[in-house]
Design goal:
alpha+beta; 4-stranded antiparallel beta sheet; DUF6951
């Protein structure tokens, strides 16, 4: 099982994603205080094994994320956790740093 902690940023929500291989796919569990993520998680609780190979426009993880803020990092985090659980990626932390700079 892979557990990913996703700090969504300005909204203040921390999301705990657990992904476990199940048969020919993945079982996804999300713990969060965000009501939109809770609703979203209901739609992606079981994912097909090929989910990590589908491009963004046809990927159900992104298609079902249409209720979320456009730049919410949770869908990406879920796919990274699936990829790691399948042994298709190194288990490395992903980070985005935002810093204001003078021009």
């Amino acid at each position: 099982m892979i557990e990913a902690t996703i700090d969504a940023g300005a909204c203040g929500f921390t999301n705990i994603v657990k992904v476990k291989r199940k048969g020919l796919g993945f079982k996804v569990e999300v713990k969060t205080d965000c009501k939109l993520i809770e609703k979203y998680a209901e739609d992606i609780d079981t994912l097909d094994k090929d989910i990590v190979f589908k491009k963004i426009p046809i990927n159900p993880v992104y298609q079902k994320a249409d209720i979320l803020h456009t730049v919410c990092p949770v869908p990406c985090g879920i796919l990274k956790a699936c990829e790691a659980e399948a042994g298709l990626a190194l288990k490395k932390t992903v980070k985005i740093y935002l810093e204001e700079k003078e021009e």
